[in-house]
Amino acid sequence: MRDVSTTLPRLRTDAAANRAKILDTAREIFSTEGLDVPMSEIARRAGLGVATLYRRFPTKEDLVAAAFAEQMTECAGLLDTALADPDPWHAFCQVVEEVCAMQAKDRGFSKAFVTAFPHASEFRALRERAERGLAELVRRAQAAGMLRRDFHPSDLTLLLQANSGIHAGTPEATADASRRFVAYLLQAFRAGNTAPLPRPVAVPLEAALS
C-alpha cells in the first residue's frame, strides 16, 4: 500500500521545484525576447509539459506578474525612497535614471511595468502605486522650481518609448547609450529651459512599449 505521508510531501516538493523552474525560465526569456513568447515555448525550454505550466499559471498574465513580482516591489521601494528624499530634483532624476537603466537591462520587466494586468491584483496595485509616486515626484520637483513648469507626467511615457528603442550592439554598450540619452533629456527637463514646448499629449503608460 502506498505511504501517503511520504507521497504528499514529495508532490509538494516537486510542485515547488517546477514552479521555480518555470519562473526562472520565464524571467530569462522575457528579459531577452520580450513578453510575446508563447506559453508552450516557455514550458518546452523549462523541460516541462504545457499542462504543468498551466496548472501553476492559468494565464500568461499570471506568469508575467509572478515572474516580475520581486522587481515590481523593488521599483515601488525605489519610489518610496525617492519620495523621502528632501531634494525633489535629485529624487526625480534618480528615479528616471534607474527606471531607464532597468529598461535598458531587462526589456521584459519594463514591458511588464507598463502593462495593465486587470486580474493580477497585487501587481496592479504596485503599478498604480508607482504611477502615483511618479506623479508626486513631478509635482514636487515643479513646486521646488527645479523641473520646467510645462513638463507633464505623460512625458515620462515618451521618454520610455524613446529609451526602449536604444540598441548599441552589446548589453554594456546599450546601457551606456541609454545613460547618455537620459542625461541629455534630464538637462532639457530642468527649469530654466524657457523655450516653450508643444502642448502635452496624454499618452497612457502602457503605450510606452507598444
Report on this structure.
Residues 16-75 form the HTH tetR-type domain. Keywords: DNA-binding, Transcription, Transcription regulation. GO terms for molecular function: DNA-binding transcription factor activity; transcription cis-regulatory region binding. Residues 38-57 bind DNA. This is Transcriptional regulator, TetR family. The protein is an all-alpha fold and 210 residues long. The protein folds into 2 domains: 4-66, Tetracycline Repressor, domain 2, CATH 1.10.357; 69-209, Tetracycline Repressor, domain 2, CATH 1.10.357. Helix content is 70%, strand content 0%. It is built from 10 helices and no strands. The chain has helices spanning 4-33, 39-46, 50-56, 60-67, 69-83, 88-105, 107-114, 121-143, 155-164, 171-189. It starts with a helix and ends in a 21-residue tail after the last helix. The model has no long low-confidence stretch (mean pLDDT 83).
